[in-house]
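Much of our argument rests on the idea that a fold can be written as discrete symbols. In the encoding step, the backbone of a single protein was reduced to a row of integers, each denoting a local shape. This step matters because it turns folding into a mapping between discrete strings. For completeness, the protein is quoted in full, as a sequence line and a line of structure tokens:
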Amino acid sequence: MSGERNVMVGNLVRYGGLMVGVFLLAFLMTGKGSVKAPESNQYESMVQERQQRGKAIAGYISKYAIDPMLAGADERDMVLGAMVSAAKAKNKDVLYATITTKKGLIVADTDKGAIGKTYSLPEGAKPLGVKTELAQTLKSAKLGDYYDVAAGIMLGETKIGEVHVGLKAGEEPPPAAAPSVSKKWILIAFVLGVVGVFAISMFSHGATAPASGVSVVNASTIEELKGEEETLMKRVADAKRDEESRREKLEALKRELGDITTQVQARQNELAQMGTISTTGVGEGLDALRKEAKNL
């Protein structure tokens, strides 16, 4: 009974798993459960590329603006004005380029009307401060989304001015629409799943029947082996008892032999003492006769 119950439970598990797989397949084919590869990676790469270009442009201007910043006002304004104009003309995504003194006075700008005014940070921007460069993503009603890249004009360790370059931000790609799948393919997937369930159920029913018989044979074989093992254990125990009995008899014989040996040794000692006494008496008699013979 336990074998049949296990077979039934196994079939139920298989059928349930297959049905879940069929419905999951149909769900995925509708596109609702599909996972699209994000295109944000490409967008992030574009953002980094734009910011790096902005840093390169601002860094170039700050490097070659040192000498003009130290020159007279006329030469300074002319050279720096040409530099910011060229930066915007040669780069279509550049929105503006501004050069300021250490105190924030605008000495060059792509917007000629801003020259001579005090520079004010764009809305939401952070000051460059002690940093040598800073790239920020900003947004305004006039420019939309853009990047502001600032670089310090450094004379050794001293900052004598700043460069600000604005670049257009790349457009973020719209989310991709989920693919649509016709109902025909969903129906085909469902039918194939049902057919597969019945086919596997028939196969599993035929395959599990002999398995129970094999388990019974294995159980009977195990019982026989257990019986043989118990018989062997009894024989081993009997052999051990026989060996102990023989060992006890041998010890008794050894003790008896020792007693006999002791008795023989004692008898030999007695006989030796008797022989010594007899010999001593005869010797004394001979000595007495010798003395009498001398006296004669």
